[in-house]
Amino acid sequence: MVRRLVLGCSSIGHTLIEQARERRGEVYVVTDDPGWVTTLRESNVAAVEADPADPGSYPDRADVVIVADDDPDRNLAAARTARKRYPDASIVACVGTAPAESVRESLAAVADRLVDPAEAIADRVLNAVGLDADERIVELVAVLRSLSGPLAIVTHDNPDPDAIASAIGLQRIAEAVGVDADACYGGEISHQENRALVNVLDITLRHLDGVELDTYAGIALVDHSRSGVNDGLPEGTNVDIVIDHHPPRAPVTARYVDVRPSIGSTSTLIADYFDRLSIDLDERLATALLYGLRIDTREFTREVSVADFEAAARLLETADVSILERVERPNVSPETFEIIATAIRERDVRGSVVASCVGEITDRDALAQAAERLLDLEGITITFVYGYLEGVVYASARSRGTDVDVGETLRDALGQIGSAGGHADMAGAQIPLGILAAVDEDSTETLTEVVRESISGRFFETVADAPQTPPVEDPFSEGTTD
């Protein structure tokens, strides 16, 4: 439960106290004004008559500290004491009446957010304080501030735009609260659009192969929720932060967990953090987050929520649309065209489902593009394209106009022999070739046939028995438990 400590009292402070009482959590007030103490106690508010800058009158814990006196100098003294007493708390300070510029600057240096009542309307004040937000943002800041060193922010392997944007977004948030952070990834960034995003926006990501995890005080996962599963980390690695929008297949363990399957992208969650924390978004980051949001919701047509539209509207104010156009129209390699052609030529159609084995590949990201193109075939609602590279079979599935969840379908079909998962209408899988690779390696055609017989059969059988897509439930919504 969030505990909000109010230091000092004034007309603005009293309004904030009344609003805070209507939200979840505790409210504790310290003021040396006996009149306010009496008024608050009569309203069943825990109030102590003492100097707001005296830490001896403070409770043992506070998650949010609101400094709300009319006197700017007293606010500064109280804010400095609160920061020393509660180093991990979020501090919101009112500037008071007619503050000197030096006092305003000093308050800004110690507080997370600064509120000037003379310049803000009441609803803006409440929003800045964060009373309308739930406990997530307070917990995130507390976990970040508790780290004794830098944070490693890890995407899933072969990160897509949503994972890339979320990683650099969380990196910016960590740095805003005083924590150094690196955005890291495993696998490759080989898809043309993903490479274009990184290159055009000059995004810096560290590959896990060159990272010493022991040098980091904390680890965060973005756009996935389990360490050691498709992310290049050792299995069982302890994680401090998880931010994701995919439905988890197993309990998620971390000090801070924000997993919301009802949201269309992780970029949406990160954009909301920026808004809650009043951190300015620069053009580069807003562009990346908007692109990640658009790609994961398939231009707002897949698993999209009201929150996604709201985030996109805010991001669009700062993003550079001309850069998005450059990212969305990268050059396509001859290898990609060849794989798409092979997928069309080798297709196996059964009813409204098509599967295609393209054999040995050089660019696994082309599989996703081939799966997308096969959806254009008349009467097709589910596509499945796969090929092998360096001892691993890679697969990509897409669906449209069907109630079959292809993410669950791939897990059921291939999860026992590899790793698989994704969304209801977009999923992928990786399966070690294992003993299949023992086939005469000089005969690519023979190996391709063996792979086709092993994989396609599993897929078609599972699709035939697949249940209908269940409604998505937000585990963090009102009335549910963690």
TrEMBL record:
It comes from Halopenitus salinus. Residues 352-453 form the DHHA1 domain. It comes from the Archaea. Gene3D superfamilies: 3.10.310.30, inorganic pyrophosphatase (n-terminal core), NAD(P)-binding Rossmann-like Domain. The lineage of its organism: Archaea, Methanobacteriati, Methanobacteriota, Stenosarchaea group, Halobacteria. Residues 152-292 form the DDH domain. Residues 5-98 form the RCK N-terminal domain. This is DHH family phosphoesterase. PANTHER family: BIFUNCTIONAL OLIGORIBONUCLEASE AND PAP PHOSPHATASE NRNA (PTHR47618:SF1). Pfam families: DHH (PF01368), DHHA1 (PF02272), TrkA_N (PF02254).
